Amino acid sequence: METKVKILDINNIDYEIIKEAALVIKNGGLVVFPTETVYGLGADATNEKAVNNIFKAKGRPQDNPLIVHVGSFDMIPSLVKEIPPAAKKIMDRFFPGPITVIMEKSDLVPKVTSAGLSTVGIRMPENIIARELIRKAGVPVAAPSANTSGLPSPTEVKRCVEDLDGRVDYILGGGKCDYGLESTVIDCSVYPPVILRPGRVTLEELREIDKSIYIDSGLTAGNERPKAPGMKYKHYAPKAKVKIIQGSMQKTVEKINEIVQNYRDDKSKVGIMATDETKDLYKQGRVISLGSRNDEETIGSNLFETLRTLDDLKVDLILSESFEESGIGIAIMNRLKKSAGFDIIKAD
Ligand code: TXA
Ligand code: MG
Fold first, then answer.
1. Are 347 and 251 in contact (CB under 8 A)?
2. Ligand 1 center–CA 279 separation, angstroms
3. How far is the CA of 66 from the centre of ligand 2 (A)?
4. pLDDT in tens, 206-237
5. Contact between 305 and 147 (Cβ < 8 Å)
6. Could you give the CA distance from residue 250 to residue 252 in angstroms, rounded to a whole number?
7. pLDDT by residue (tens digit) across 105-120?
8. Backbone angles phi, psi at 188, to 5 degrees
9. Which three-class secondary structure state does DSSP give residue 146?
10. For the whole prediction, is pTM greater than 0.70?
11. Does the Cβ of 338 fall within 6 Å of ligand 1?
């Protein structure tokens, strides 16, 4: 398949190109597009054949449901059976934005899209290219992250090209994704609503709407079975082995230096995910800073791309510092732990 690649300037959008890509979706094709979280691989959510092609292009397991993206509020009622009060409040407050709200689905959502579940996750992206694309297509758009299943999600269009060139009809570029972590997934088909995937919209923010909202406990341990089917698979994993070092900053630096020191002959085969505060304290290995510890938003936005950059550098081991599990840190550590297969080394 010939893949058309077009890069848009977010400050000077060529709407004719969006129109062309929207027509591809309308006609049952696959289009990669930017969102504020990560790049998505979209198709008409109501077209079974098109949705099936998403699973094929990504190599995604069939039992993992897709999020359905809408361009405006009026698209939502036809996709769900009812809008529970908590869901309404959450959508009023956070749509458009980096959150997905799960509700009981209507018959308009085919089985393949929801992977046989009775529910559907609805998200309204804030990214203007994404929203225009959906509006112009005039259909709800099913879209998982635009990566080969299992790899870190793409936050730069070049990663989508690496993974999906020749496997999709159209790749629409639009710069680096602002947030870099996938949307918060909250299940509102039950009460109290439960967070199945932590993200940029934090537990603290959601509790301002309803104090009874909590995070699914299956997310914190590696062995329990999480409710979002996608969370059970190997995920966000680069080719290199990832290990997380946990402890005080000083002990963490000491431990990482010790591991690198004892690592074979070729120290350039070890990647280190550091922070601005620590990056100069590592003398060997390929050191990349995720950003300052005072700025978790930046750390979150750089996480996936840094994992992929270290793969480009052909390291075979990645040692990562860890982050406090509060606010956005919960989402950062959730992705990091999964990319490490829960391999955590205590430094103190
Ligand atoms: O930010 C995002 O959400 C990005 C952009 C492209 O919008 N999309 C994304 O999709 O991350 P995906 O397919 O890579 O991850 C969707 C997650 C999976 O873990 C899936 O199992 C879960 O959401 N999910 C989707 N629908 C669900 C449902 N009805 N019930 C439970 N979990 C669901
Ligand atoms: Mg994904």
1. yes
2. 34
3. 9
4. 999 999 999 987 765 444 445 667 666 667 88
5. no
6. 5
7. 999 999 999 999 999 9
8. -105, 10
9. coil
10. yes
11. no
